Amino acid sequence: MSIVIVDTNVMLRFLLQDDMEQTKVVLDVLQNADKVVISVHSMCEIVWVLQRGYKIAKNEVAILIHTLLGIPNLYVDRQTIVAGLRLLELGGDFSDGVIAYDGFALGGQKFVSFDKKAIKLLALQGYQVHLLS
Q: Shortest CA distance to 13 belongs to which of 57, 49, 55?
C-alpha cells in the first residue's frame, strides 16, 4: 500500500496546471497512491496562496477546494476543511473557519477576536463569539 503526504506546492500544481511537466508528475502520484494525505495546515496555505499570490477570487478558490475534496483517495480532515469553506463561501477567511472549528472541537466555548467580519459570520453559523475591543 502506498500512502503519500503531499505538500502545498504539489496540490497547487494540480489545481493550477501552470507547469505541465510538474502537473503530469503530480497526476501520476495522485493516480498511483492508495492514499494521498494533506494536512489542514497545507490546505490553509493553499487557500492563502491562491488568494494572495494568484489573486483568485474567494468563490473560485472555494470551487478549487471542492475539486480537491472530490479526489477519491484524498485523506484530509474534511469536517475542518468544510468549516473553512463555509466561512469562505460567506465572504470570510477560510482560516478563521478552520480556527473556530478546531477550537470548538478541542473544547473551546467562545471564539474571541478583533476581526469584526469573522465574528459576524461565525455568529451567523451559530458559534458563540465575542468581539474584542
A: 49
Q: List the strands of the sheet with 35-37, edge to edge.
A: 3-5, 35-37, 74-75
**pLDDT (average), residues 32-50:** 98
Grade residue 51 by pLDDT with cuts at 50, 70 and 90: very high
- Strand pairing category for 74-75 and 35-37: parallel
Residue 1 pLDDT > 80, yes or no? no
Burial of 114 (0-12, 13-18, 19+ CB in 10 A): exposed
| Integer Cα distance of 94 and 62 in angstroms | 9
φ, ψ of residue 37 to 5 degrees: the values are -105, 135
Do strands 111-113 and 129-131 pair parallel, antiparallel, or not at all (unpaired)? parallel
Q: Please state, in angstroms and rounded to a whole number, the distance separating the CA atoms of residues 58 and 121.
A: 15
Contact 26, 65 (CB under 8 A): no
Q: Any residues with CB less than 8 A from the CB of 11 and at least 6 apart, and which? A: 26, 38, 42, 46, 68
* Burial (Cβ within 10 Å: 0-12, 13-18, ≥19) of residue 20: exposed
